[in-house]
Amino acid sequence: MHISKLFIPILKNNPSEAKIKSHQLMLRVGMIKQSSAGIYSWLPLGFKVMKKIEKIVREEQNKIGVQEILMPTIQSSEIWKESGRFEDYGEEMLRIKDRQDREMLYGPTNEELVTDIFRSSIKSYKSLPQLLYHIQWKFRDEIRPRFGIMRCREFYMKDAYSFDISDEEAFFSYNKFFLSYLKTFKRLDLIAIPMAADTGPIGGNLSHEFVILAETGESKIFADKRIFDLNTNKTVLEKKSLEVMRQEYEKYYSVTDEKFNKEEFEKKVSNENRLVTKGIEVGHIFYFGDKYSKPMGASVDLPGGKKDFVKMGSYGIGVSRLVGAIIEAKYDEKNEVMKWPISIAPYDVSIIPMINKNENNLLDKANNIYTELKKNNIDTIIDDTDENLSSKIKKMNLIGAPYQIIIGKHTDGDLLEFKETGKDSYKLKLKDIIKLITEQKEKN
Ligand code: ATP
Ligand code: MG
Questions:
Q1: Top mutation candidate among 42, 155, 207, 216 for ligand 1, by most atoms within 8 Å of CB
Q2: Ligand index nearest the alpha carbon of residue 181
């Protein structure tokens, strides 16, 4: 795409209202626009990145056999009264009345609704397990929305739900998600550590938060550094080995401040392995047994003729929060350079031609390269404005395509000035640039 035709409202300076770097960058390059407190519109650049994240999240859910559905954003209060959460959820829930005076709400999460869907059709253990997910907007009337889309009121979440016949089977489902989350975050080029967590208003007995390290994170974390050395390459979803894998992670102390116990930390983790820092929660998984199935009467027939309430878990990923979390992890604020992982970058490469009013040949050359890259399925952004070269480079450094081609005085013949965004440039032929970028894309 040609930048002169794109809707990328770039600001010259950092907006003063933004306190953390992801919020600054997102406003600076016009990825989002606030429409009211904690509520944002997603502009082309931001939307493109979010959709790419969503795609990876979806692919990884599908790989473990979760079925995609789509539940509405607006729910009836009835089912929430059945579970008892209509009162418990408190002021974070946005309550609405329709014209018939019925109490409705904008869903902050979907345990009740999915349990209602389940109970209306699944009656036998033979249909279990059932794993369902959707990717949908949520609303939580956060008391203090802040940091842009990191803690906002309307946000985009992947939430999945598992239904099993027994605790043992339910742990198997839980472990599938545990593995899937490790893989999802790895594909997003993030290191997310699973941390034993409190279960909060969702309730229950087994829970992990997936947290990425970032100074600006809201959760304080305490961990054993050796947890970073664990590596999970499992492709087979086998019950026993998945349980072993999760226990392997659980051997290492890693908790947020809610669960922190100083004595335990110091006893379990030697001085040199102690890590105390901050992090951002990007995902959260829960096992809560029959917490919802029991009050809502979601039971199935068992082999012997008896009935039992189905055992459930829920599994969230903050898809929109991830956009900010990745910026927190990758943005070099000091040099004002963002380099998106190629798997989710808004563009694969940017072409930055020096344009001289008197001679148009560099723009022509840039356009030819653009066409060639496009033919090879390389998503390219080209700066066809007549700004000077250094301000064009600054702009592209913020937009964050992972590679740049600079077309200027130093371009001679076949050899182009090429660089990884933020690094030094070197000379490379177009066909080798295409090869390099294509290989990087295929790796992801
Ligand atoms: P937090 O502790 O950050 O308030 P939570 O524990 O209430 O989050 P969950 O119910 O576990 O959130 O939701 C699943 C995921 O949705 C979280 O891991 C997070 O990535 C995302 N999320 C939750 N609340 C928000 C919010 N207000 N804005 C953006 N993303 C959010
Ligand atoms: Mg949580």
A1: 155
A2: 1
| Nearest CA residue ID for atom 16, ligand 1 | 318
Q: Which ligand is nearest to the CA of 211?
A: 1
User: Do 410 and 300 share a structural domain?
Assistant: no
Clarify whether residues 178 and 318 are in a common domain. yes
Using one digit for the tens of pLDDT, what is the confidence trace for 210-264? 999 988 898 899 999 999 989 777 788 899 999 999 999 999 999 998 889 999 9
Compute, in degrees rounded to 10, the torsion defined by CA atoms 107, 112, 116, 119: 150
Ligand 1 nearest-atom number relative to CA 322: 20
Alpha-carbon dihedral angle through residues 284, 219, 14, 345, given to the nearest 10 degrees: -30
Same domain, 205 and 74: yes
Q: Please list every protein residue whose CB sits less than 6 Å from any atom of ligand 1.
A: 109, 140, 142, 151-152, 155, 157, 200, 281-284, 316, 318, 321
pLDDT (tens digit, 9 = 90+) per residue, 348-375? 999 999 887 666 678 889 999 999 999 9
- Report CA-CA distances (Å) from 306 to 59, 104, 123, 125, 269: 37, 36, 12, 11, 47
Domain-ending residue, one of 284, 299, 330? 330
Closest CA to 3 of 438, 435, 384, 430: 384
Range of the domain at 437: 349-443
- Ligand 2 centroid, distance to 111 Cα (angstroms): 14
Whether 270 is covered by a domain: the verdict is yes
Expressed in angstroms and rounded, the spacing between residue 252 Cα and the centre of ligand 1 is: 24
Q: What stretches of 163-288 show up as alpha helix (H) in DSSP?
A: 167-187, 239-250, 262-268
- Residue 432 resides in a domain: yes
- DSSP H or E run through 207: strand 206-213
* Domain co-membership, 300 together with 246: yes
Domain count, the chain: 2
Indicate which residue's Cα is closest to atom 4 of ligand 1.
Answer: 151
